[in-house]
Design brief:
Layout lengths: L5 H4 L6 E10 L3 E8 L3 E10 L7 E11 L1 E4 L2 E10 L10 E10 L11 E2 H5 L18 E3 L10 E4 L14 H8 L10 E4 L11 H15 L4 E2 L12 E2 L9 H6 L21 H12 L10 H5 L4 H17 L1 H9 L3 E3 L14 H7 L3 H22 L9 H14 L5 H11 L13 E4 L2 E4 L10 E4 L3 E5 L23 H20 L7 E5 L8 H12 L16 H12 L4 E6 L6 E9 L12 E7 L8 H6 L12 E6 L6 E5 L16 H6 L7 E7 L6 E2 L17 H14 L2 H4 L10 E7 L8 E9 L7 E9 L33
Parallel strand pairs: 10-11, 11-14, 18-19, 19-20, 20-22
Antiparallel strand pairs: 1-2, 2-6, 3-4, 3-7, 4-6, 5-6, 7-8, 7-9, 10-27, 12-13, 15-16, 17-18, 21-22, 21-25, 23-24, 23-25, 26-29, 27-28, 28-29
Helix pairs in contact: 3-9, 4-6, 6-11, 12-13, 14-16
């Protein structure tokens, strides 16, 4: 299909550009997000279904309406919330349906501006029909989480890059919903996208070409960027249309301060997003196929230049990504979806350390780009997470009004931009130097922000579980007495209390008053608490050499031992077990940590171990050759060894020591006095706690019932016969099943599903993570690998602390030694 500018296609497009996406969903309130090309008042109704199976729609239970926010001339966004009618509440074990109605704002003055139903707004005469429903009534549906965790299904994943290579795994969610759409206890109940929903850096050149065209058309104006024309040997200012794809690297690095190109991969910054319009368009094209069109060919762009081949290769990857967006769109409409940013949602290394903050936030282009990216996050992700912050009189509503004014002014209204900065929590700047301001938080420094700033962390609760979603980007605690490149606390001391402790305490109060019976606690931490040993080694080596931007040195919790210890002590003060959902690292895995607190008996094996299970699903669509290598049995040559720590709670930051594995084993640690030598070395008393983490093995891959010959996962091959034959030979050598059945990680594109068993008192409670991925040994086959872990609780017990005794696990013996703390 030849490329056509959006301005020529816009009149023929449907009203809905992206969505609907089901967002925060609770018993009395349901929020749905949608993006339109025209300003409307959007009405949302939530319906009961006869028999609770979703087949036939019954009475209206919740209802609400809201006008769209005008982000551009042809881009109008709303997250509309429906609330209880006549005190109705939604209940588990039922399938509910919802409907949307769109009334143009100017309908009173325009007789042709008719009210549209959901189906009318989704479709246009010149385009193929679109449906976001699995039923004949054509309405999307959902089910609340059950009362019993045994039936709970949580889907999670991260890192979805349009040209990531391989098959996008988010469309698998459409099949998971569709197979059990009539069974409320068997269909997925919640989806958590744990970071990198879009990529502000590492953008494919053809994708940026489309984003610039679509974004400028939708907003109706072209943003003038604060680029110094003299520094770029130019005599005029720059707009997004003038900074072409593949030619942004030097500008991004020197004038924006961005570090994506400093890791030895300069191509990852050559098409960096800069403008608000580009960030908005990136979301629209990641969630919907409405704005997609053809691309110019490499020959049309570059002639016979070598860049033409790279362009065409990326176009092929993008077309494969766009081909399955109809499945993604339907899935997101039919499951409550929650999101949180990681770094690539704005740019690589976002707030990685104090040096990054000083480097980027002090530059006009750096500040402008980051604020554009954060505004787009608030509009497309944050609004649906916490719709209450966007109600009348709240900071979110002020932000929406300022965004509309900023757009109306064509990006020139300084007052609107300042209001946006305050509401988004963007760091305040020193008036003369332009450097970002910091303020003290305990023993650390945090970026200073306006008191009316929105918060990005949040908590979701059902009748059986709670999910605490952390913001580990904007509340980092930077050490004031170390070099700016020193790893920070991913949460500053006070932030631990606000984001974790306060949420746990509120749940405890609800349990005590009988308002809920929470049995499972999840914490969404976008970056991992536990890493593979090789990653830890690489990060420590990079830190010692000062190459902090090469391997995200600063995003690992255990690089700042104080933050690592504070996380554990904060969580385990109130929970016997916790499950951490993580992404970021482009492979999926599972690990189990047991945690002992020193008691008066001084016997480890008589103390109750508390349990932390880390479940990682990454990447949805961004697997790399390195992760595909560790995915195989070759990784078994260097298996993961247990990781152990002891810690003291002497200060706000704690003091943690890693225990090295030694060739000469010593006595198994049965008493705390076993650590006497280590305590003396650090001039401390016996440690307050001891923890041990082990990596769980993945079970052999199983083919899903519907995944043997998946038609949508079979590419249309145009390769000559000899190339097809060569690919078959390569598959026999590399893609054979025996080699691909590694034991520890899933290093191919994957999507995670979390389930439970044993909460019905029939057995000990366990958690399962099933990672779904495309089998390389057979095109068109979807498989899953299962990880399973005992939660360390007896049947029917609660997640709070108990007095049950449990022996220390029999494990490889240890040599008392220490890993030096990183300065």
């Amino acid at each position: 299909m030849p490329w056509t500018p959006l301005r020529h296609r816009l009149p023929s497009l449907p009203l809905i550009l992206a969505g609907p996406i089901l967002r925060r969903t609770e018993a009395r309130e349901v929020t749905v997000w949608v993006a339109l090309k025209q300003s409307c008042t959007v009405r949302l109704k939530v319906y009961d279904t006869i028999g609770g199976e979703g087949i036939e729609v019954d009475r209206c239970l919740l209802e609400g309406c809201r006008a769209t926010a005008a982000i551009g001339e042809f881009l109008h966004i709303v997250a509309v919330t429906a609330r209880s009618v006549a005190q109705f509440t939604l209940k588990p074990g039922q399938v509910y349906a919802y409907d949307l109605q769109f009334e143009p704002i100017d309908a009173a003055n325009d007789s042709t501006a008719a009210i549209q139903t959901l189906q009318q707004a989704l479709n246009a005469p010149a385009l193929p029909p679109v449906s976001v429903s699995y039923f004949a009534h054509q309405l999307p549906t959902f089910s609340l989480p059950p009362d019993d965790p045994t039936h709970l299904q949580i889907v999670h994943g991260s890192c979805r890059k349009p040209h990531g290579g391989g098959w996008d795994t988010l469309p698998i969610l459409d099949d998971l919903i569709g197979r059990h759409v009539e069974q409320p206890d068997d269909r997925p109940h919640q989806l958590f996208l744990t970071g990198d929903q879009i990529y502000g850096d590492d953008v494919a050149d053809p994708f940026l070409f489309t984003l610039t065209d679509a974004g400028n058309t939708l907003l109706g104006w072209t943003e003038a960027l604060p680029i110094d024309p003299v520094a770029q040997a130019a005599r005029t200012s720059f707009t997004t249309s003038q900074v072409l794809p593949g030619q942004r690297g030097e500008i991004a690095e020197t004038q924006g301060g961005f570090t994506a190109g400093l890791s030895g991969k300069p191509e990852q910054v050559q098409s960096h997003l800069f403008s608000l319009s580009e960030y908005c368009a990136a979301y629209l094209l990641s969630w919907s196929s409405v704005l997609w069109s053809g691309f110019p060919t490499g020959w049309e762009r570059y002639g016979s230049d070598r860049r033409a081949k790279a362009w065409d290769r990326q176009v092929q990857q993008l077309c494969q990504f766009a081909h399955l967006l109809w499945k993604v769109r339907r899935a997101l409409a039919n499951v409550p979806t929650y999101m949180i940013f990681d770094d690539h949602d704005l740019t690589d290394d976002w707030c990685l350390n104090q040096a990054w903050c000083l480097r980027v936030f002090s530059k006009p282009l750096g500040r402008r780009t980051m604020q554009n990216g954060l505004l787009a996050y608030a509009l497309f992700q944050g609004w649906g997470n916490t719709p209450g912050q966007f109600e009348a009189g709240r900071s979110g509503e002020k932000m929406l009004q300022a965004a509309a004014q900023w757009s109306i002014s064509g990006g020139t209204d300084a007052q609107a931009w300042e209001t946006l900065s305050h509401c988004l929590g963007f760091p305040l700047a020193e008036p003369y130097s332009g450097l970002p301001q910091f303020t003290s938080d305990g023993e650390t420094l945090v970026l200073k922000r306006h008191p009316q700033a929105l918060h990005w962390h949040y908590t979701i609760r059902s009748s059986c579980h709670e999910v605490i979603v952390l913001d580990t980007r904007t509340w980092r605690g930077y050490p004031p007495d170390q070099a700016p490149i020193a790893p920070p606390m991913l949460l500053s001391p006070d932030t631990f209390d606000r984001q974790i402790a306060a949420s746990l305490e509120q749940t405890d109060r609800l349990n005590q008053t009988g308002q809920s019976q929470i049995q499972v606690t999840f914490i969404v931490a976008p970056t991992n608490l536990l890493h593979l040993g090789m990653i830890d080694y690489i990060q420590h080596q990079s830190l010692r050499r000062g190459k902090i931007f090469h391997h995200d040195v600063g995003d690992a919790w255990n690089l700042h031992q104080g933050a690592f210890g504070r996380f554990l002590t904060t969580v385990f003060e109130r929970r016997q077990q916790v499950i951490v959902l993580s992404g970021d690292i482009h492979y999926g895995c599972a690990a189990k940590m047991r945690y002992w607190v020193r008691s008066t008996s001084n016997l480890i094996n008589n103390a109750q171990p508390q349990v932390l299970i880390q479940l990682t699903s990454s990447a949805i669509n961004n697997a790399e050759w390195k992760t595909q290598l560790v995915h195989t049995k070759l990784k078994s040559i260097v298996p993961e060894r247990p990781q152990e720590w002891i810690g003291w709670n002497e200060s706000l930051e704690n003091f943690v020591v890693s225990i090295k594995q030694g060739w000469i084993p010593s006595k198994r640690p049965e008493t705390w006095s076993h650590f006497h030598e280590l305590a003396n070395r650090h001039q401390r008393s016996l440690p307050d706690w001891y923890s041990r983490a082990e990596w769980l093995k993945r079970q052999p891959a199983r083919t899903v019932p519907w995944g043997k010959n998946v038609s949508w996962a079979v590419p249309n091959s145009t390769s000559p016969k000899w190339m097809t034959r060569l690919k078959q030979i390569v598959s026999l050598l590399w893609h054979n099943r025996w080699l691909q059945e590694g034991k520890e990680v899933v290093g191919r594109n994957n999507l995670g599903v979390v389930k439970f068993k044993g909460f019905d008192a029939s057995q000990r409670p366990t958690v399962q993570q099933e990672l779904y991925w495309h089998a390389p040994w057979e095109i068109g086959q979807v498989v899953y690998s299962r990880f399973e872990a005992d939660l360390g609780l007896p049947s029917g017990s609660s997640p709070n602390k108990s007095d049950r005794a449990d022996e220390l696990p029999r494990s490889p013996r240890i040599l008392i030694d220490t890993a030096e703390e990183v300065d």
